[in-house]
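Aim 2 progress update. The chain analyzed this quarter is reproduced below.
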Amino acid sequence: MNSRTSSLSSISDLFRPNNPKGLRSRDLSSTRLSALKKEINTDTHLIPLKDLYTLLGTDPVNGLSSQKAQELLDYYGLNTLTPPTHYTVPKLFSGFSILIWLGAILCLSAYLIELSTKPDPSTDNLYLGCVLIAVDLICGIFSFFQNYKSSKIMKTFNSMIPMHTTCLRDGILNRNTEVRDLVKGDIIYVEIGDVIPADIRIIESRGFKVDNSSLTGECIAVPRHNTDGSANILESPNVAFFSSLCVEGWAKGVVLFCGDLTALGRVAGLAARLQPAPSPLSREIRRFMRCMSTCALALGIFIASASMILGYPFMQTSIFVIGIVVANIPEGLQPTITASLTLTAKRMVTRNCLVKNLDAIEALGACTTICSDKTGTLTENKMCVRHIWTWNKTYSILDKEFENFLQNDQALNSLKICGALCSNATVVKSGVIRGDASEKAILNFLFNYCDPVTIRKRYPKIVEIPFNSVNKYQISIHLNEEKKTYLLVMKGAPECILSRCVTIAFNNKSISMTEDIKQAVNTTTENLANTGERILAFADCDLDSNEYPLNYPFDTENPNFPVDELRFLGLIGLKDPPREQVRSAIERVRAAGVRVMMVTGDHPATARAVAIEVGIATTPSCHIVTGTELRNMSPDLLYLTLAKHYEIVFARTSPTQKLQIVEACQKQGGVVAVTGDGVNDAPALRRADIGISMGIAGSQVSKQTADIILMDDNFATIVTGIEEGRKIFDNLKKSVCYILISNVPEILPVLMFILFSIPLPLGVMTILCVDLGTDMWPAVSLSHEQAEQDVMARPPRTSDPLVSNRMIRLVYLHLGLIEFAAGMFAYFIVMAEHGFYPSQLFGIRQKWDNVAVTDVEDSLGQEWTYAERNELERACQATYFVAVVVTQMMNCIICKTRYNSIFHVGMKNNVLNIGLIFELILACMVCYIPGVNTFFKTYPLRLRWWFLALPFAALMFIFDEFRKHCIRNHMFGGWFNKFTFY
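Predicted structure tokens:
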């Protein structure tokens, strides 16, 4: 046993049903993932069949014994795909949710402290803690369902497994063997319509063709037979892979790999086990969380120190610290971001872009690289005839005069008959054509100019030699019922057909084949192939009726009819055409600074031609990297190749190599989007920052794995997604700024309460009402704002954070302070109207909050009981709350733009306009509805108190318009641009 075979055996042990000794479940999962990422390294398709039978302990005549099969089944397990182990609970304790959980725990802790130290503790902290837990659970459950994708991916893969197959064991052929019971060494039979139940090596076959699109993404049927294998098993003609469909012929094979170790099993394992890259938004939230945690910790330490200096008891100090930490948490931020992304996702559905993972919207806006599959993504995944060549003339079927040429050129008519006859494609009653993609394309083409079915009736097929990769041609013999003679037709590779022809059809006659003509054919073949077309050559021969009379016994095993000295008819060029609007879409994407690379399993020449046609490559000298070259590249060399060549095309790549390319692009610091429609694209779609699948032509696996599905299969829809992603990021900045500004007038009253010992200006419940009530609709409505400039005219953001230092300066040192000033002004006015002037409020809190003190004297000499003081405090807190609401309404208008004047933009966002009305109505409900104002500890306000904050709202508007004017005109040496433009 050589090293490659023994290496494969050790990998097989990793996927046994029982964990290998010494490996924990998590370690085993990681080890399995590392093994799946490696290229398949085996020689079981290269060694002689006799040696293979010995290695597998099987017999091609009798198959495995039932006892041996059962032993292998017990050791290696069923021929199924193993689902990965998931750890979903930690998803509830990650990202911004950690801060909210911390806030909830601190609130409940504060309530318990008060419960143990006071006979009548306030329930505010209890309510706040419960609300925070509810918010976090809702967001966590939403995240759970977003991350539940992996198990559904594996279910989709398992749906591709057939239930039964034909298997030889103990010398008995069982046509109803359960596929899950197959093991290595089993001898199986497959025929047309069967799905290959495992990776098998062909022992014998006849006309056997399989559709490998589940692995390669290419829908062309490929022949498989017992021949020498290629070094790369994925390109080996003597191996048929699990999940491939037999479209022609039959085959007998020996099972090489089962379950997780099949080529498709590896793809499934990677797709289900890979963890998607953290989205740019999640990274921004983590960064913001660290910033807020640092601020909260610093403030907590400051308050603790100040409280101890001022002589507060330890329990009271603890409550103060908890209060200030909780006040720092913007509870409404996470629901705002989630709601904004959800609304954007709904808007994108109307533009044929279905979003499954909300973070992918913003990630698409930050995208720097698109790795696009070719077939079905850039092209239509439908072969069609593009060019026809007969002697000395190349016809484009798009030419309006082509139909006239077809009627007047006898050589074209002969080619038309040959194309209809030398084909195994069939036409069902519904008019649907079934068969090989190339043959379907030719029949579709012929239906535009004649009736191939009628031609076939006039020339019934007698015998056929199917296409195989050795001969590279297909022959069929037909009876000409009119002349009672036989017509032989042939098609295949141009070089093979050309070598068998002695004449060539020219108009209504045949002329001798000369070297000049052969050179012309070869030149035309090369020119058409360079445009990405697949070239087929056609030839025919009228068999002499004397030599081949009616009922002649044709022998296809040992041909007793001519396969040489034929008449060359011409060439047909077939191509999978690019989708409409793809080229213009790629031009727009590249203009936006996004790099587009092609990653395909197709031939390098075809890949280059399509890349040039759609605009991925601008010159024929674009860099091409094949799968073989990639296999020999070190990670560092691949990194350098990506850095050196901007225009690059990867061809003949395997699923693991696509994954390798994606990870290399991410290593460069890029945000990578991967487009694909096949099963083979699943690992790359899963690992990418944004996985994009096709909705119509895409496989169920690719759609299950992807973050975004293009419902119209149009690459141009990606442009819409990038545009929406960039716009929502700009608008999220506005929403975050709006939310954070209200944080300032919520934090500072707590500091005033602790440090200056004044009655509390803003209660816990009113803070909660602002964060999760009045602020929510306006904050979400900002996601509906139109872009302030052409977002596609700028490069992807690389160092532009969601919450920047400039935003923090604007929020905490400018607009937030104005809101705080408005609230405190309203608070002091109400207190003064009732006899408590500001100078008297400082240091009064100990008496004010003491239930036993019933004679607190105001500035006018009036005495206030605890109940009266409590009612006045509620009125002051309600006034402060209303001042915050009024200034937040102005803040929302200000945040509509980041640098344009509001007079330029106007108030066209009706969702925001309604949101402002909603904010005002909700504030009135909180203050005036009995029961509601009791719960939130507010008070029915006098009408004049509503207007106390208006001067501050006007000041905010004037200041921000002046700031934006300075930004637009770079005034004061660009100071405002540098320090306040977010």
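The longest strand covers residues 199-211. The CA atoms of residues 599 and 650 lie 5 Å apart. These observations will guide the mutagenesis experiments scheduled for the next reporting period.
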